[in-house]
Specification:
Blueprint: E1 3-5, H1 7-14, H2 18-25, H3 29-36, H4 45-55, H5 59-62, E2 63-65
Antiparallel strand pairs: 1-2
């Protein structure tokens, strides 16, 4: 996958649990887990916006492009 979701890294930096983040963002733990484990096919901009608001970060800190070579 060329797009990497660094949600687990940001959650660790902010010391926030999956349950707490799901409640603050307003999505289910199951959907948040799909994002965290990089199994998501898409993310709504409204969800990304809320994640950035709650985690106090920029979208680029959560999402990164990784060149597929050697990955």
């Amino acid at each position: 996958m060329a797009i990497r979701i660094n949600l687990d890294v940001m959650m660790a930096k902010r010391k926030i649990s999956l349950n707490e983040l799901a409640g603050k963002v307003g999505i289910t733990q199951a959907n948040l887990s799909i994002l965290k484990n990089e199994r998501a096919k898409a993310i709504r901009l409204s969800t990304l916006n809320k994640l950035c608001e709650v985690l106090q970060c920029q979208p680029g800190e959560l999402i990164e492009y990784v060149n597929g070579k050697g990955d």
